[in-house]
Amino acid sequence: MNKDDIKVSTVQCVGFIMDGNRRFAIDNGQTELQGHTAGKEKFLEVIEWIKIEKIPHAVFYAFSTENWRRNKEEVEHLMFLFRELLIQIKREGQARKFNVRIIGRREDLPTDIQLQIEDLESGDADNSFPTIWIALSYGGRAEIISAVNKVISLGKEIDEEEFNKYLWTAGMPDPDIIIRTSGEKRLSNFLPWQSIYSELFFTDTYWPAFTKDEFMSILEEYESRERRIGR
Fold first, then answer.
1. Residues designated catalytic
2. CA-to-CA distance for 139 and 212, rounded, in angstroms?
3. In which band, very low, low, confident or very high, does the pLDDT at 97 lie, cut at 50, 70 and 90?
């Protein structure tokens, strides 16, 4: 199916800060590592909601530059899950037709995961829909500094529109909506450049327990809000 044949949502991009995996696990008598596994399964479920609602882009905050400070066992488990996830995404993406982009400091990741990412992105079909962006070893300040250094190396003056081309998210629309689960009410270094006019939604629900009904309620509330960008 060609993108031109798809009636898309008025929401062009939705962002998710997937928070609360560990607390979900503790509340359900599980280990924190099991919570992350449940979070991975929820991520795959939410992709299906994005497709059903015909939202062209979705960006998921999976692992921040600050998350490397967590204990070794947890980080190793998360890397294991990312390896599994990338394999699963490659298989399901080819079968179900969606593109994937990984944004963040790839050089921080284990070499085998970097190779998985290259292989995954090289297999994308141009007419697939939607595009799923995964922020992996991502930090908003690090992204901006990286873009600034690229511009400095070119020795030229640019405007905001041109600057967007040097960000890791080049090609991704600014999120119309950013949803954070687990009750925290902050963005935690997620897309500081791109989120200046995003509508923010905070829910007390932990990420693995996030439901489609709650997601649909957020989309409905978004449609009722008046977005006054600079007016």
1. 19, 67
2. 28
3. confident
